[in-house]
Amino acid sequence: MEKLVSEHRLGQQLVIGNMTIIPIEKAVYSASQLGSGMWLAGAKKPVAIIIITSGGVQALDMTAAELSLADIHEMAPSLTDQLNKRLPRISDNGAKWPA
Question: What is the domain extent for residue 34?
Answer without folding.
Answer: 2-86
